[in-house]
Specification:
alpha+beta, 5-stranded antiparallel sheet, single chain
Amino acid sequence: MKDHSLRGQEGIALILALLMLLILTIIGISSINSSVFETKISGNERMGNAAFYGSEAGVIMGVDRLPNVTPYSGNVDSDVKYRSGQLAPSAPQPQKKIGIMRRPGYETVWKFDRFQVNATGESFGAMKEVEVQVSVGPYGAGTQYNN
């Protein structure tokens, strides 16, 4: 007499194999998507860092030019550009003279001019802005007594 306890289960191995193959395919596709996403993130970070270093070079150029406040622009290399001014407008803008400041340890006959230097860097469409405030001097404040 035959044992009929496994009757109707001849195709279960095929169904289990197909389910396992489906699960492994889903895991493979999700890991590929994750790898592509991580690659895009690292590329964006690289371009953002290059833009930041470009804006930093622009700030250094702007500080070196003070007290000249005229607009300027240039290239760090073929892919990274900088220009004076804030992020929003696309053309170089002049630097800003904020005013006069005094410094501790200097008599009132001396003054320091205070400037705001903004620079924007760009690399492959990524843009970053750096802003610094700089004092330049000392200059005579015009309060010296004439002998």
